[in-house]
Amino acid sequence: MSSAMPEEPRPVRFGIMGCATIARKVARAMLLAPAANVAAVGSRSEEKARAFAADNGLPAGVRLHGSYEGLVDDPDLDAVYIPLPTSLHVKWAAAAAARGKHVLLEKPTALCAADLDAILAACESNRVQFMDSTMWMHHPRTAKMRELVANKGTIGDVRVINTVFSFQADEDFLHNDIRVKPDLDALGALGDVGWYCIRAILWAVDYELPKSVAAFRNPVKNQAGVLLACGATLYWADGKIATFHCSFLTNLTMDITVVGTNGNLHVTDFVIPYEEKSAPFSVASKSSFAELHTGWDPHPSKHVVTTDLPQEALMVQEFSRLVQSVRDAGSKPERNWPAITRKTQIVMDAVKTSIDSESEPVNVAS
C-alpha cells in the first residue's frame, strides 16, 4: 500500500503595480522563488505593462492591465507588490487589501505613521498579509548576525550602534528622480536610504523603541525642500545610543557597527551584499591590546554566509509562505512584520519632526 506524497502548495499569484526600476529586481525574485509566480502587471498604460513584461522575461501568459484599478480588480491574483511613489501608497495598498489581495509594499511604506496605520487597518480588516520590502532582513546572514548580537557572551549588552547608507547620485537623479520630488516622495533621502539605517538600528536592539531622537544640524535639502542628506542620534532610557547618516551625495556606503560590553559586530554591505550569493561580516569579542599595544588580541573573526537564492527572492519566498498559510490553511496573517514596519515608521516620523524643528529633541511615540 503506497502513501501519496503531499501536494505542493499552489504558488502565490502576484500582480506587480507599476514599472519602477526596483520592480525589475522584484520581478526577477518572483521568477526565482519557487512559491511565487508573476500573474499580472499593471501600469498607467497597457503599452508600458507589455514592455515591462517583455523586458523582464515574464511568462507569455502574464495578464497586462493599463491601469492600477484593473490590477487590483483582477480576480485571479493572491497578492500585489506595490513599488509606486510613497504618496500613492495609502490609496493603492488599501485598495488592494479591500479586494482581498495580500500586500507587499515598497519602502518607505508611508509619508507618516497615520498613513501607514490606514494601510495596516485595511490589511487587518480584510485578513490579508502585509510586509514591507526591506530585503536585507531576509538574508541568512541577518539571522546569523542576530544570533551573535543576542549572545551575551559574544557581544554583551548592546550600548552603541552606528549606521550609514549613502550613494552618490548623478545630476539626472538629483533633478528628475521621484525621490527628490516633494509631490511623489517627500521624505527624500530620509525615506529612501534612512529607512534602512533606522531599521538596522531597531534590529540591533531587538526592536526596542528609543525614548527620543535629535536630528543632526544642517541637513542638506534641494530647492524644493526635499532632503538629500541628513542624520540623527537616537537615545534610550537605559543609556543606549545610536546614530545614523543617510545621503544621496556621498560614495556608496552601507555600514552597521554594533558595539556591546563584550564585543562588536561590523558589516560593510548590509543593504546589498557585495556579491549575490555570499555575504561577509566581522565580530570582535573580548578584545584587548597585544603586548606593547602593537595590535589586537584576539583578532576579529571573519564570517561569510552563503545563499542559493538572493535576498529579494528569499523575501518573496517568505511572504509567499505566509500568504499560503492564510489562503490555504485559514491562518491569521502574521503580525510581526507589520509591527516592525510600524516601529520603523514611528522613528522616521520623529526624525523628520526633529529636522523640521531645527534639530530639537523629539520624544518617540509608541
TrEMBL record:
What region holds the Gfo/Idh/MocA-like oxidoreductase N-terminal domain? Answer: 12-131
Domain spans labelled GFO/IDH/MocA-like oxidoreductase: 143-265
Q: Which GO MF term does the entry hold, naming one?
A: nucleotide binding
Extract the InterPro entries matched here. Gfo/Idh/MocA-like_OxRdtase_N, GFO_IDH_MocA-like_dom, NAD(P)-bd_dom_sf
- Of which family is this protein a member? Belongs to the Gfo/Idh/MocA family.
- What name appears for this protein in its UniProt entry? Uncharacterized protein
Q: Organism, per UniProt?
A: Brachypodium distachyon (Purple false brome)
